[in-house]
Amino acid sequence: MESPILIIHPGALGDVLQAVPALRGLRARRPGATLVFAGQSRLGRLLVALGVVDEARAFDGLGLEALFTDGPIPPALAEWLGGFARVVSWFGAREPIYWARLGALAAELTVARPVPDDETPVWRHLLTTLSLGDFVETDSVAPIRLPARPGASTVVVHAGSGGAWKQWPPERFAEAIGEVTARHTVAVVVHQGPADRAAVDALLARLDHPVERLVEPELPALAAILSGARAYLGGDSGISQLAAAVGAPSVVLFPPAHLPRWSPWSPSARPIAMTGDETPQVIRELERLLSSASR
Question: In CATH, what number is assigned to the domain containing residue 177?
Answer without folding.
Answer: 3.40.50.2000
